[in-house]
Amino acid sequence: MKEDTFVYVTFIKTTAEKLWEALTNSEFIEKYWFGSTFETDWKVGSKIIETRDTGEPGFHGEILESEPPRRLVYSFVVPGREASKVTYEIASHGQMVTLKVIHAGYDKDSAEYKSTSNGWSAIMSGIKTLLETGKPLDKDSIYDLFGRLN
Amino acid sequence: MEEKEVVYGIFIKATPEKIWDALTQSEFTRKYFWGTNVESDWKPGSKIRFFSDDGTTFSEGEVIKAERGKILSQSEWMIGPDGKKGGESVITFEIEKHGDSSKLIVTHVHSAKDHKKAMHGWEMSMSSLKSLLETGEALQLQ
């Protein structure tokens, strides 16, 4: 696995339990993960499979750690790329929680790193908007961002 | 002195102009940036004053580049209680419009020893700015 990591932190006005729900409930995920659905039971050792809204396969992996509502780790495999690992950490601070995502296994100078960092800032921003306003960010806006990148 | 760069990108459901106003007007900055008021005419070469509610100036800066709704680049330095000027850093905000939302990217070039503190500060303040523009209320930051 490559050695660089991408780290992103956002502060959200919610509870750790609600944030955990947003990370692990397929209906929520679809609203901020570009319309994709995830298939998994979130138990350690189980598979996790992403299907894009176009029906194409996304990433797949295995649940490595699951400690509700604090920590979730899974491997992240995309065909044609080296395997990487995603870690979510949730911490409470009064009326807020911090959500930290650590995506390990990148080469900082690669094009993949740039698209990954864009992807995570859109996903994390989407989770925050969904939890604070009850509505997701507009899907077309997010697609517009990725359309320009590609 | 060794320099480092903090880059933080965030998606906000707001127009680029609204985000620009939130970066340049005290009625917004004091809510998401720890009570900071700002004063400038936001033209390249102009001075910027950052001050608390009681009028005390705690830092100053200069506008490098300014295009409403697109880019704001500014230098900034602390002013000590004795009036002494601290180290200078450069902060650039870039705004991109995407549908009904915008992407705000902040890049802060500063001395390497402040890296962790600077990153943490932007994570908090930009999260709070997003909440303010989307929900009308900033986060309660300590």
Mean pLDDT across residues of chain A: 91
Please name the two chains that share the biggest interface, counting residues whose Cβ lies under 8 Å from a Cβ on the partner chain: A-B, 28 and 24 residues
Named CATH architecture of chain A: 2-Layer Sandwich
- Our count of helices of chain B gives 3
Largest sheet of chain A: 7 strands, antiparallel
Task: Please name the fourth-level CATH homologous superfamily of chain A.
Answer: START domain
User: How would you describe the oligomerization state of the chains in this entry?
Assistant: heterodimer
- The percent of residues in helical segments of chain A reads 25-40%
Protein model, in words:
The complex is a heterodimer of chains A (150) and B (142). Chain A has 150 residues and is of the alpha+beta class. Chain A has one domain: START domain (Alpha-D-Glucose-1,6-Bisphosphate, Chain A, domain 4), CATH 3.30.530.20. Chain A has helices at residues 16-24, 26-32, 111-133, 139-149, and strands at residues 4-12, 37-39, 47-51, 57-67, 71-76, 84-93, 96-106. In chain A, strand 2 (37-39) and strand 3 (47-51) form a beta hairpin. In chain A, helix 1 crosses helix 2. Chain A is globular, with a radius of gyration of 15 Å. The model of chain A has no long low-confidence stretch (mean pLDDT 91). In chain B, a hairpin with a 7-residue loop joins strand 2 (37-39) and strand 3 (47-51). In chain B, helix 1 (16-24) crosses helix 2 (26-32) and helix 2 packs across helix 3 (115-135). Chain B has a 7-stranded antiparallel sheet. The termini of chain B are far apart. Chain B is built from 3 helices and 7 strands. Helix content of chain B is 26%, strand content 44%. Chain B has one domain (3-135): Alpha-D-Glucose-1,6-Bisphosphate, Chain A, domain 4. Chain B is globular and about 45 Å long. With 142 residues, chain B is α+β, with helices and mostly antiparallel strands. Classes of the chains: A alpha+beta (150), B alpha+beta (142). Chains A and B meet through strand 1, helix 3 and helix 4 of A and strand 1 and helix 3 of B.
